[in-house]
Amino acid sequence: MCPHGRCRQPMCRNNLPAVTERSDVKGRSVMERLSRFVSFYEDELSGGLLLAVSGGSDSLALLHSFAGLPDAIKPAFRVATVDHGLRPEARAEAAMVGDVCKRLGLHHDILTLAWDDAASVSQAQARRARYAALAAHARAHGLTAIATGHTYDDQLETVFIREGAGSGLYGLAGMADVAAIPVWPEGYDLSLVRPLLTLWRNDLRDFLKGVGAEWVEDPSNTNTAFERVRVRNLLRDNPDEVKRLEGVLGHAISQRISDADQMTDWAARHVNFLIGGAAEFDVPAFLKLEPALRLRFLMALLTAVGGKEALPRQEKAEALIDLPGCEAGRTLHGCRLQVRDGVCLVAPEPVPLADVLKLEPQSSDVWKGRTLLTRTDNCAGRSLIASWETREVPRSLDRGSLPRYDIRHSLPVILNDAGEVTEVPHLEDGASVCPRDLSQARFYKLLQFKAQFFATESRQRESFS
Fold first, then answer.
1. pLDDT digits (tens, 9 = 90+) for 306-323
2. Hey, what domains does the chain have and what are their CATH numbers?
């Protein structure tokens, strides 16, 4: 959904036709496909879902289909609509979704974004703020995944656009069924799921007709100023191109799933995660991998250890796949790589001594994108968190048992008002701040490509023409 005023108009389809045999057949197909998705990814959905519903046909189909699941397989979920605060009509659209949820007996919340200068907000900024708000809301309600209404149309359009931009095989694999939330660190411990990715938009609209549902029509879907609209029009009138894209997509998905499975298994045997989110891996084993696999491995590892939101630029990562110059040390994407005795250490780069996080009692925050810090005490005042770096070792610690400096320098420490280290939470039991490193879990989530359901269903796709 485009958040700007030019892209939305009030609800349409006020005079819905009676349920037809065609819409009933489509409805059964939608529900059967969703039921298989929920069963296939039972573990990933077991922590509960936040359905992101805008009021358009795709997300409303997501809402109605989840509401119609049998209780025996229905995961816990609630619904949220994001009002980007950029269009006056957005509130009414969100309220419409709320009315639907009330009729269905579902929990619904409106998340309103605020901007200092709404006129200058880009679509990328609005998208990031939307996912950050959804992530915070999901976490506040104890949910572990956010579901969106991406469709098969969206998948093919994405592949076409990426192909035109010169994307490689990994990009041509399109969107996964289950992926990392595209914001960090707000998205820690959360997944993004796309339950409708194997379904055409027209089938979802037929399904909505069958349940008597209304949706909001988006004028931007017919505005040819947008590349995606031009691509959508081209594919709608070109079944041969659709068939060709499906072949490209099928090949790319199969290869990427295979590569991801291979690398996940390889990493489990050859990568060791260390205190504070650093990692080390076996260099001889790494250099035996195909260059493309080394590249994907490095991109995921550097992003996780560096605590970054986005992957490094591919050309910069490619320059390191043979680890040139790493005996002396190389830096990239917030990390320092050092090869010694056949092992490559990937550790966070130094943090300026002046960088300080103030942590309130009974609160949590993510330090440098790597470590979740939770303060469990009720003492008054804020805890001052900084990176250890060159600060003194507190007297409470045994100097002889400390990790080596290139690992421990980036550990978060607690300072007193004089700027002296009083606690190193990673190394002390009973510290007032409890640390949990996020790098390992994030690395594996970035490395994986969970599209097995899409691949299976695509091979068995039924024709509804």
1. 999 999 999 999 999 999
2. 5-237 (3.40.50.620), 272-350 (3.30.465), 356-439 (no CATH)
